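From the methods appendix. Each design record in this collection lists the tokenized structure first, followed by the designed amino acid sequence. Records were kept in a plain field format so they could be parsed without special tools. The example shown here is representative of the layout used throughout.

RECORD:
FOLD TOKENS (562 positions):
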């Protein structure tokens, strides 16, 4: 690992000084004379959003101590804390608080710190009803509201987003979107400003963490960025927040923001947070983005929220009589019709999760000999039916939930888990990775390693080893790969046998094979000499020398195949 340049801490110090100086200059220019603090103390105990701090501390603590992020900061244990099905309550409760890695965690913590204080400010630690006293009951006690009721409501919304999320999603983003939805109802443009402030905090964190970035062109393996967004969970969280915000707004009779301001705030938020990125997983690491449909949906969302927040109490249908308003369904106030439509949309988003999360894991035998760790099975396989997606087979518009998968498979019948923990493509790029399984208070690691050869012409053969508790077993051997050059009427191929690679020469339906020799050594088969060098395997025949195979490369670097 290269040494850290001695001037890097100086750059970080310069960043801190610049930020602090900028804040002080603005403070001096504004000369608030305590106005900011007075406004905060009017809504918060001691002017501090304690509920936000409690929630953020709980999310960080879950990552550090339950997911073992303290020991594995960059690769915490995730698999047991996903919401695999309703038959695995631990996953349903924990998935909203668990995160896949530090960037995922820090992104949601930043979102919490910028949106949750606005939502907490709207709700307030002190009662707003006329004549009520702060300590007249536990519901109005500001300390109970700050340290128990607000975090409790956040916990309930987080679990709600997990219950109605399709598939084994993970992360606190559903609650973050609920914070934003709640805030958008009362302070739409302030929420958009907070969104930009979150980007500033993210930039500041990156500048302090890595003041200088040096990058070179190199191969990478990644899925499309939009395929990593839990769009359904985000939308459910946003609807939950908006509905709660509308209820509180009407319950208190607070002033409603103008329709145009609400529309603009919701639209800007939805677009910047990629709520338009509606996609489908087609299998085989292929994804489809429905961009046009997504644009229609976010504009419709902004219109619906704006009309619901600003609508009057006049009935949309029916008429008001002398003794009151007709109480039939058609005589509902206009804003309640907006709530009904939002609830229908939210139900349409959440509804598909119920059958999927009731049947998520296949009980069919896994191929090969899996590594068994308590109730877990870990194996590598290719072109097998995805046992989680195919549990409920739905086909529509040319797409289907029944797909085949290849990679490192993790299954637990007890927990209802069936997942491709590492795809074939990612393992082929990384070459080596670790899969962590476990539960509350325990964890174990399986190291997965791929080694292979690429023959001239593009074909590949390889093996995959699984190592656990000091024991290594070969989980998969790819078919032989035949090179394109024909040498003296002979076909050349590379094959896997046990844990070694063989070079083979075929002629007249007969094949001679021998282990690929070490570097700087050679072997002769049927008159063809195969010489191994640092660059690969070469065939020599009657004075002609041609390369027939090279070791696979991982992360753009060539690795030895034996």
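DESIGN:
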């Amino acid at each position: 690992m290269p040494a850290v340049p001695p001037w890097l801490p100086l750059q970080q110090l310069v960043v801190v000084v610049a930020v602090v100086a900028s804040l002080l200059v603005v403070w001096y220019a504004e000369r608030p004379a305590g106005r900011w603090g007075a406004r905060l103390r009017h809504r918060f105990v001691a002017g501090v959003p304690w509920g936000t701090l409690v929630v953020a501390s709980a999310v960080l603590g879950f990552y550090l101590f339950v997911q073992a992020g303290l020991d594995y900061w960059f690769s915490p244990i995730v698999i047991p804390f996903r919401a695999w099905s309703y038959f695995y309550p631990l996953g349903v409760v924990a998935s909203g608080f668990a995160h896949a890695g530090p960037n995922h965690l820090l992104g949601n913590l930043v979102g919490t710190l910028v949106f949750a204080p606005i939502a907490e400010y709207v709700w307030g630690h002190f009662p707003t009803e006329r004549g009520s006293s702060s300590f007249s009951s536990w519901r109005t006690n500001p300390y109970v509201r700050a340290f128990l009721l607000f975090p409790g409501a956040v916990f309930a919304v987080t679990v709600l987003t997990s219950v109605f999320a399709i598939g084994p999603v993970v992360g606190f983003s559903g609650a973050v979107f609920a914070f934003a939805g709640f805030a958008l109802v009362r302070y739409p443009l302030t929420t958009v400003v907070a969104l930009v402030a979150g980007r500033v905090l993210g930039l500041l964190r990156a500048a302090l963490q890595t003041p200088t970035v040096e990058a070179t062109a190199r191969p990478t393996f990644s899925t499309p960025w939009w395929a990593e967004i839990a769009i359904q969970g985000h939308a459910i969280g946003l609807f939950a927040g908006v509905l709660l915000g509308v209820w509180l707004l009407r319950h208190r009779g607070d002033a409603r923001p103008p329709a145009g301001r609400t529309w603009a705030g919701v639209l800007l938020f939805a677009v910047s947070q990629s709520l338009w990125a509606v996609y489908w997983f087609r299998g085989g690491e292929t994804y489809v983005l429905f961009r046009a449909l997504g644009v229609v949906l976010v504009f419709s969302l902004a219109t619906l929220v704006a009309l619901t927040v600003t609508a009057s109490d006049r009935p949309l249908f029916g008429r008001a009589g002398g003794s009151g308003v007709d109480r039939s369904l058609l005589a509902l106030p206009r804003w309640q019709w907006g709530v009904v439509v939002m609830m229908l949309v939210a139900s349409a988003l959440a509804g598909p999760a119920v059958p999927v999360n009731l049947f998520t894991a296949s009980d069919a035998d896994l191929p090969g000999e899996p590594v068994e760790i308590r109730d877990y099975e870990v194996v590598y396989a290719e072109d097998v039916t995805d046992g989680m997606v195919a549990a409920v087979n739905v086909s529509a518009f040319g797409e289907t939930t029944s797909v085949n998968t290849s990679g490192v498979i993790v299954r637990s019948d007890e927990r209802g888990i069936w997942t491709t923990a590492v795809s074939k493509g990612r393992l082929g790029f990384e070459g080596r990775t670790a899969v962590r399984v476990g539960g509350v208070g325990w964890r174990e690691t399986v190291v997965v390693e791929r080694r292979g050869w690429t023959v001239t012409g593009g074909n590949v053969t390889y093996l995959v080893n699984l190592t656990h508790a000091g024991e290594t077993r070969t989980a998969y051997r790819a078919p032989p790969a035949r090179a394109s050059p024909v040498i003296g009427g002979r076909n050349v191929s590379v094959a896997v046998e046990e844990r070694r690679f063989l070079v083979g020469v075929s002629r007249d339906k007969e094949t001679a094979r021998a282990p690929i020799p070490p570097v700087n050594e050679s072997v002769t088969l049927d008159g063809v000499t195969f010489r191994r060098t640092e660059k690969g395997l070469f065939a020599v025949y009657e004075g002609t020398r041609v390369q027939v195979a090279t070791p696979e490369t991982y992360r753009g670097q060539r690795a030895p195949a034996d």
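APPENDIX NOTE: The first strand starts at residue 279 and ends at 283.
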